[in-house]
Design goal:
Distance between the termini: 30 Å
Shape: globular
CATH topology: Glutathione S-transferase Yfyf (Class Pi), Chain A, domain 2
Radius of gyration: 15 Å
CATH class: Mainly Alpha
Largest sheet: none
CATH architecture: Up-down Bundle
Structural class: mainly alpha
Strand content: under 5%
Number of domains: 1
Order of helices and strands: HHHHHH
């Protein structure tokens, strides 16, 4: 579980921030495009890593739903928001996200927060 949680805070969040908050990394706007490009590359690698892990297990930590799974659903949603082709590029991750979204607790949270995962 620690590996999944630490990846969440020190890799995936940083890569996503590079895409949508480049000012956190450089002060000059002229440098924003390369930071965003680097962030997209880094984020895509994170999504690829999650896709690979999910090929061998049902949930982030193995066979049971854990605290990491909602984080991975958020990361999926961020991939959608960042215009990654999640459905075709990450089919295992997409199936996983759909399974999570079928949970009543997830449906309730998404409805309460007015979040739509699927474009």
């Amino acid at each position: 579980m620690y590996r999944g949680k630490s990846r969440s805070s020190n890799t995936v969040h940083v890569a996503y921030a590079q895409i949508f908050r480049p000012e956190r990394f450089v002060t000059s706007e002229i440098n924003f495009p390369p930071v965003k490009e680097s962030g997209r590359s880094n984020y895509e690698q994170c999504l690829t890593d999650i896709e690979k892990e999910l090929q061998y297990q049902d949930y982030a930590i193995g066979t049971q739903f854990s605290v990491v799974d909602p984080l991975w659903l958020v990361f999926y949603w961020w991939g959608v928001r960042a215009n990654f082709d999640m459905g075709s590029k990450f089919p295992v991750y997409t199936a996983y996200a759909k399974r999570l979204c079928s949970r009543s607790s997830v449906q309730k949270a998404l409805t309460n927060d007015e979040i739509t995962i699927w474009k």
